[in-house]
Specification:
Number of strands: 10
Strand content: 15-25%
Radius of gyration: 30 Å
Number of helices: 9
CATH architecture of the largest domain: Sandwich
Distance between the termini: 73 Å
Structural class: alpha+beta
Strand order of the largest sheet: 1-2-9-4-7-10
Helix content: 40-55%
Number of domains: 2
Order of helices and strands: EEEEEEEEEHEHHHHHHHH
Largest sheet: 6 strands, antiparallel
């Protein structure tokens, strides 16, 4: 373990930020330990391996690219896996604006876990910290500037994640609206163009998000749903093929029969006859 403490006039909780300690840890396989209860914020950045942590009696899984916060006066423990031991950086700090900066990064006692992708940036910041010499007159300024850089990184990282979440939420909303439109209008002669127009979307974009989220195309989704509804109607002996064809959006019974057979492997008539035998 490499741990470095910062003892200076900066260690004053009445200033904006005070850096207390930082370090690098390579856990032994299967390591389990209780973290010291401190009157500071401690942030951990997982560089490699897997494990878990418990913060205020809540368990969280850890892996490369994840991180967590231990708030002041908080009981916690850390566990490293046997097969892939954890390697992590940590940094401890306090100050009158410490919680404010963390909240801007959406990290607090209720949400102590975060993820990050730019591991090389995190490494570079900590490597610069680890390189500073205790006899360097500018050491405190260097270390605190790196602390601010790490907090800025977490804030901007949170913005990117939230933007992606909003984008995903928007895409899922479009899919939900599109499928509801299909459920309500499958009996009509609707097309992919009709759905795109209803949602005010480009047809290519609609097809793209259908593929990304449902792993199918809008056209295939319409056909599948129509065939499902046709199968339900075919279990009623009094329903004719012509009636069912029209009921699920196909004006031409021959076209309906071809599409049904392609989907189910048998004709609508044979499906209906087989369903009748089960009654």
């Amino acid at each position: 373990m490499a741990q470095f403490n910062v003892c200076s006039n900066y260690m004053n909780s009445n200033i904006d930020l005070s850096l207390y300690n930082y370090g690098l840890e390579h856990c032994k396989p299967g390591y389990f330990g209780t973290q010291d209860i401190m009157d500071q914020f401690s942030i951990y950045f997982i560089l490699d391996g897997t494990g878990s942590c418990n913060i205020n009696n809540q368990n969280y899984s850890l892996e490369k690219g994840s991180g967590f916060l231990i708030p002041p006066d908080c009981l916690s423990y850390l566990k490293s896996s046997i097969e892939t031991p954890l390697t992590y950086y940590w940094i401890g700090f306090d100050g009158i604006n410490a919680s404010y900066y963390l909240k801007r990064a959406y990290i607090d006692q209720q949400n102590p876990i975060f993820t990050f992708e730019k591991t090389e940036f995190v490494k570079s910041c900590f490597n610069e910290m680890l390189k500073t010499q205790s006899n360097d007159d500018n050491r405190e300024i260097k270390l605190h500037s790196l602390l601010y850089l790490l907090l800025l990184f977490l804030i901007e990282n949170a913005k990117i994640i939230n933007t992606n979440k909003r984008s995903n939420n928007t895409r899922y909303s479009y899919i939900n609206q599109a499928t509801q439109f299909i459920y309500s209008n499958y009996s009509k002669k609707i097309t992919v163009h009709d759905i795109a127009k209803y949602l005010s979307l480009d047809r290519k974009y609609l097809s793209k998000i259908f593929h990304e989220i449902l792993n199918t195309t809008p056209k295939e989704f319409i056909i599948k749903y129509r065939i499902e509804k046709a199968c339900e109607l075919l279990t009623n002996p009094s329903n004719t093929i012509s009636y069912i064809s029209n009921a699920v959006g196909y004006n031409d019974p021959l076209q309906f029969s071809k599409i049904f057979k392609k989907s189910k492997g048998i004709s609508p008539k044979k499906y209906k006859d087989a369903a009748a035998l089960k009654l």
